[in-house]
């Protein structure tokens, strides 16, 4: 969704016939949004959630104990 909005914005800025003043206005607004602390926080939270969901380390849990010293661990989704 974000890529679509960026593509539409870039297409409008590059293809507009409103002139340089409109381009400057849009450019200034885009830079203000990109530099906003709220925008940066949303991006950081989104990156963290994506990173957490793409974690390659499986979450393991014990399947059964062979003896007092040995336990077999398997990923949660294979139980």
Quick overview:
This is YtxH domain-containing protein. By secondary structure, the protein is of the alpha+beta class.
Number of strands: 2
Structural class: alpha+beta
Strand order, sheet with most strands = 1-2
Cα radius of gyration in angstroms: 24 Å
Classify the beta-strand content into a percent band.
5-15%
- The structural domain count equals 1
Q: From the structure provided, what is the oligomeric state, counting identical versus distinct chains?
A: single chain
What gap, in angstroms, lies between the N and C termini? 36 Å
Largest sheet, in brief, is: 2 strands, antiparallel
Instruction: Specify the number of helices.
Output: 3
Helix content: 55-70%
**Shape annotation:** rod-shaped
Mean pLDDT: 77
Which parts are unreliable, with pLDDT below 50 for 5 consecutive residues or more? none
Q: List the helices and strands in order.
A: HHHEE
Protein name: YtxH domain-containing protein
Summarize the helices and strands and which ones pair or pack.
Elements: H1 2-15, H2 20-35, H3 37-53, E1 60-65, E2 71-75
Antiparallel strand pairs: 1-2
Question: How would you sum up this structure, described in words?
Answer:
By secondary structure, the chain is an alpha+beta fold. It has one domain. The chain has helices spanning 2-15, 20-35, 37-53; strands at 60-65, 71-75. A hairpin with a 5-residue loop joins β1 (60-65) and β2. The mean pLDDT is 77. This is YtxH domain-containing protein. It comes from Rhodococcus oryzae.
